[in-house]
Amino acid sequence: MSEIIKKDLSEIIELIKKKEIKSEELTNLYIDKVNKSKKLNSYITTCFENAIQKAKEFDRKPNINSLLPGIPLAVKDLFCTDGFKTTAGSKMLKNFIPKYESTITENLWKEGAILLGKLNCDEYAMGSSNETSYFGNVINPIAENTVPGGSSGGSASALAANLTPATIGTDTGGSIRQPASFTGTVGLKPTYGLCSRWGIVAFASSLDQAGPMTKSVKDCSIMLEAMAGFDKKDSTSIEKKKENYSKNLKTDIKGLKIGIPKEYRVENMPKEIDELWNKGKNILKDLGADIIDISLPHTKYALPTYYIVAPAEASSNLARYDGVKYGYRSSKGNDLIEMYENTRSEGFGDEVKRRILIGTYVLSSGYYDAYYLKAQKVRQLIKKDFDENFGKVDAILTPSTPSSAFKIGEKTNDPISMYLNDIFTVPVNLAGLPAISVPAGLDKKGYPLGLQLIGKTLDEQNILNVAYAFEKNCNFKNEIKNWWL
Amino acid sequence: MSIDKDKIKHISKLARISIDSKKSDLLAKDLTSIFKFIEQLNELNTDKVEPLSSILNTPLRSREDKIDDGKIREKILKNSPKNNEEFFVVPKVIE
Question: Active site includes A76?
Answer without folding.
Answer: yes
